[in-house]
Specification:
Elements: H1 6-28, E1 32-37, H2 42-51, E2 59-64, H3 71-77, E3 83-86, E4 89-93, H4 98-114
Parallel strand pairs: 1-2
Antiparallel strand pairs: 1-3, 3-4
InterPro entries: Glutaredoxin-like, Glutaredoxin-like_YDR286C, Thioredoxin-like_sf
Keywords: Electron transport, Transport
Protein name: Glutaredoxin-like protein
Length: about 120
């Protein structure tokens, strides 16, 4: 049931459309944090726990370096996991550096807010 008439209804429709576009855009612009890992990896498990408070600020993508299709990553990182890339760029390895992560996420968020 709608209680709006004339221009008010048009304003609601356009505002709702803008809201949906912003909601959709915000979901698609989240940065991707890639975790290069293997099973078992206690340091990776520890890292994922540390990242939980940040989970709404990025999409976590895990890459199992022991899978055949990831052999290049295995050769590169077999002695260094966990390794993290943010939007395809190396960010950190061995342990989570929360200040570095926060700094890079803030940069990306500020850049996104200007667009």
């Amino acid at each position: 049931m709608l209680w709006f008439q004339g221009n008010s209804m048009q304003l609601v429709k356009s505002s709702f459309g803008l809201f949906l576009r912003n909601l959709s855009a915000s979901k698609t612009t989240l940065p991707v944090l890639t975790l290069f890992t293997k099973d078992p990896c206690p340091l990776c498990d520890e890292a994922k726990e540390l990242l939980k408070p940040y989970k709404n600020r990025f999409i976590l993508q895990e890459v199992d370096i022991t899978l055949p299709e990831n052999s290049a990553w295995y050769e590169r990182y077999k002695f260094d996991i966990p390794v993290f890339h943010l939007n395809g760029q190396f960010l950190m390895m061995h342990r989570v550096n929360l200040s570095k992560l926060e700094k890079q996420l803030r940069k990306l968020e500020q850049r996104g807010a200007r667009c």
